[in-house]
User: What shape does this take?
Amino acid sequence: MTVHVIDHPLLKHKLTYLRMQETTTDNFRRLVREIAAMLAYEVTRDLATESIAITTPVATTRAPVIAGKKLCLVSILRAGNGMLDGMIDLLPGARVGHIGLYRDPATLEPVEYYVKLPEDIGERLVIVVDPMLATGNSALAALSRLKGAGVTSMKLVNLLAAPEGLRAVQAAHPDVPITVAAVDERLNEHGYIVPGLGDAGDRIFGTK
Ligand code: URA
Assistant: This one.
């Protein structure tokens, strides 16, 4: 498995403000959107290109465009939706699927309550988005569900990951590369990432 931790001063700066408990809902949303766009830039770095003939105002030339599989973003509800806008800013033609999972507060196990995916998802490169890779349980369930739907090429994108979550995804899905803005220290006894940023869904949607 490959883990790409994005090392960029602008991203680190934005992530620091995202972590602060005094960051307001509107600023939190804006920062998630901006960081997601930066992660979209990084996660598409290895896409294949092909050369096409074009005419500029000055000359006829050949220039590269994205080739190969079309993209599908898949948001793990509900916090994943916070990352969609920033990703779509850079990938406006991408299809979008949703997988609804909530964490049972007692067992921390994911419970599936909604799935809607493009019909041709098996032919697409799928980029799964979820701000927090904590225990990894939600990501594991989503990646297995997508493989069951015929997906053969996938990438996972998170804002923050815990080492526990990275290890869990690595063990079960070594074929899925992970792109993250930062890897934090650990999980606490409630399954929260430490130091983390709290509950990403609550902070994006202002529900607490
Ligand atoms: N989900 C969150 O929103 N935050 C965490 O720290 C862990 C899981």
